[in-house]
Amino acid sequence: MKIYTRTGDKGMTGVIGGRVRKDSVRVEAYGTVDELNSLVGQAIVLMDPAKHKEMIADLTEIQHELFDAGGDLALVKAPDGMQLSYKITADMVTRLEQWIDRYDAECPPIKRFILPGGSPVSAALHICRTVSRRAERRVVTLAEHEPINEEVRRYLNRLSDFFFAIARAANVRDGVGDVEYKRGGEVFR
To answer: Is pTM, for the whole model, over 0.70?
Structure first.
């Protein structure tokens, strides 16, 4: 099988159920999810398997789910004779909430806003957090124009919170403090 197909040379790409322009809102949404998936992979390779074993496992699961989310977003209509079926579910959102609580329990209480940084792993996870938020914004825009799997939007919303919690926990595991925003007062009590 060849990697190149030449079918996109005129600015169109295939989605599940048809073809759309490469700059469509749909392609922008699942393309941003794909970008996020790559950044999660980058964060994983920065991790020490001894200190971050559980984190690596969770992030690897998230990579698979992001691939599923991209598939859900690329689904325009079910192939003939098949029922529309999505992969991202409410159970995945609930599980993310459990993971957020678990990682948050490792961290000291927050008193000030946190700036991205600390350890290299934490900084990489904060990049994942911001791209997750952008992916969510793209999905919100897509949902204004076309039907989507609503669980993808919820999943991405929760995922940005997950990246915040795991970035802070990575700093704890790496023995590095969070970088606090010092120009404001304590905002969390």
So the answer is: yes
